[in-house]
Design goal:
273 residues, N-terminal domain of MutM-like DNA repair proteins, 2 domains
Length: 273
DNA sequence: ACTAACCTGTAA
DNA sequence: TTACAGGTTAGT
């Protein structure tokens, strides 16, 4: 489900409820959803620690606990983190319940792809999946030059390169297609074929569309909900994702729907060159 | 660089 | 019944 704008929205809606709250109890309904550190169980590591704050890196949520422990959470396709102010009966696909001083966090995931890992905070930088991630697209250090640098000497279709989290962190199938449409560039173009002007346009489009996604609290095309169970409303602003065969909102030509880098890809062959 | 695998649900 | 789904990884 969630790409950068959705994860950022979950972060914002969750942190306001749980900041400075102590985790009093963990209920592991499906233990496969979590992993601990070395020989310590997840419950032992996490119980009785206070949530300091929640950060985000790409599509990862970083729940910062006392004494330098971080919970690295990834929702994959259908994961959710829900906050409830009162005790709540777990739903069918809830795998972990964090009982707090006030309220509960429920981690649920229909497809069981999502994971929460407990790891000492210093190891997040060197010893976790985070360490190989590309730059954060909304930070000021991410410039057009950095994007060109990240493409490097690779000769990949843009679609594949932009989906690669090592190139740039946070884009997924929705926001790659939307970025390329807004930049007017075809998803099959090779990373080595772009002019400086096109890279600049793409860089701008990526930042623009991600910010717009956050402003709209994400895209609830199917399952996505924030920590309060609310939908985002960016779906109405989607130009191409999920609109294969429908008319382009700019030129009215029927949108192409192809398979590229193993993913369904929608674009306008007239607006995108 | 592509495919299968991980899972379940929904729609065609 | 089959295809497909917002992601990532480990295999060819």
């Amino acid at each position: 489900m969630p790409e950068l704008p959705e994860v950022e929205t979950i972060r914002r809606t969750l942190v306001e409820h749980v900041k400075n709250s102590k985790i009093e109890e963990i209920k592991l309904i499906w233990p496969g959803a979590v992993c601990g550190w070395e020989d310590q169980s997840f419950e032992a590591l996490v119980t009785d620690r206070r949530i300091q704050t929640i950060d985000r890196r790409g599509k990862y949520l970083l729940i910062r606990l006392d004494e330098d422990l971080t919970l690295i959470a990834h929702m994959r396709m259908t994961g959710r983190l829900n906050y409830y102010p009162e005790n709540q009966e777990p739903e069918k696909h809830t795998h972990v319940v964090f009982r707090l001083e006030h309220g509960e966090i429920h981690f649920s995931d229909v497809r069981k792809f999502g994971r929460i890992q407990a790891i000492p905070t210093p190891l997040c930088i060197s010893g976790s999946s985070l360490c190989k991630l590309g730059p954060e697209p909304l930070e000021t250090e991410f410039t057009s030059e950095v994007l060109r640098e990240r493409f490097g000497k690779k000769k990949l279709p843009l679609k594949a390169a932009l989906l690669d989290q090592h190139v740039l962190a946070g884009l997924g199938n929705i926001y790659v297609d939307e970025s390329l449409f807004r930049a007017g560039i075809s998803p099959g173009r090779g990373t080595d074929t772009l002019t400086e002007a096109e890279i600049s346009k793409l860089h701008h489009a990526i930042q623009d569309v991600l910010q717009a996604g956050i402003d709209a609290q994400g895209t609830s095309f199917r399952d996505y909900r924030d920590a309060n169970g609310e939908k985002g409303f960016f779906e109405q602003e989607l130009q191409v994702y999920g609109r294969g065969g429908k008319p382009c909102k700019v030129c009215e030509q029927s949108l192409e729907r192809i398979r590229l880098a193993g993913r369904t890809t929608v674009y306008c062959s007239r607006c995108q060159k």
